[in-house]
Amino acid sequence: MKSWSLRVDGTRVVVQKGESPKPEPGPGQVLLRMLAAGLNRGEFIPGGLIKGGASRPAGIEGAGEIVGLGPGVEGLAVGERVMGRCAGAFAEYALMDAREALPVPAALPIESAAAVPLAFLVVHDMLVLQGRLQAGEWLLVTGVSSGVGVASLQAAKALGARVIGTSGSAAKLARLKDLGLDLGLPTREPDFAEAVLEATAGRGADLVVNAVGGSVFAECVRCMAFEGRLATVGYVDRVLTAEIDLQALHARRLTLFGVSNKLRSKAQRAAAVPGFVADVMPHVAAGRLLPQIDQVFDFAQLREAKARMEAGGHVGKIVLRPPDAA
Q1: End-to-end CA separation in angstroms for the chain
Q2: What CA–CA distance (Å, rounded) separates 182 from 199?
Q3: N or C: which terminus of the chain has fewer CB atoms within 10 Å of its end residue's CB?
Q4: Can 2-116+291-321 and 122-258 be said to share one CATH topology?
Q5: Does the pTM of the predicted model rise above 0.85?
Q6: pLDDT per residue as tens digits for the range 91-138
Q7: C-alpha distance from residue 290 to each of 201, 281, 282 (Å)
């Protein structure tokens, strides 16, 4: 089958198109004919989701049609369309853990379905499970035009929160006004705390999502309200260290936490799915949460899709359409 792989070459991640054997579903797995797959920036950062060494299958989330069931799979059927996290999603066929396979709502376009799993599972963990975001609270998202950033904005508005976002592009922030962005701050620099405090009448942000990295970490702490929470979900700036204001952490009773599935077992990842289905999927099925799709690329154009993501020109998710997808 046609497929893409990734390998680290020095300081960059290289993608390569080729042929690989069609996989067979093992116990607890389903085999999908892939219909769409979402790109994720972390997959293209050396030391992020990919390490040095041999190449590996590319793509970590998508949507497709079930064409095979492994031993022990119940509640799913051949011909059903599902979405979820799956390794090797940039291919004609891929395997998915049946525990993570989410039925695609009938009204949801398949390209949108491919953009739901990773971003919104992360957002559910970040905003609901760990962030405890409540209606009326303030959320600050650095890098709000990214896939996770836009999903955070959408989910926060569904929860009744108010949202401030930063981006290096004023044009991107203007586009996000239609999704409910309350205040856009056009900056890539750690210079936004004063504006956040002013917008919140001196209170600060109850929850901060840092999707940029260490270069803005200290500024994020300066933005936090009493008993505020700070989620670190990415480091596109590749700055992996930052100073912590211990006095602020202590006096304001702050909570700092990371959001990553890198070290979670398959069982731990699967255990988070039922809560996601209960809390988020009703909003997706009703059309209240619809992933923002920036652009859909054909299968042969993964290099161009990767370049668009790395150039930062996108707003929302970039999606790859596998060969012969329908």
Answers
A1: 17
A2: 10
A3: C
A4: yes
A5: yes
A6: 999 999 999 999 999 999 999 999 999 999 999 999 999 999 999 999
A7: 31, 11, 11
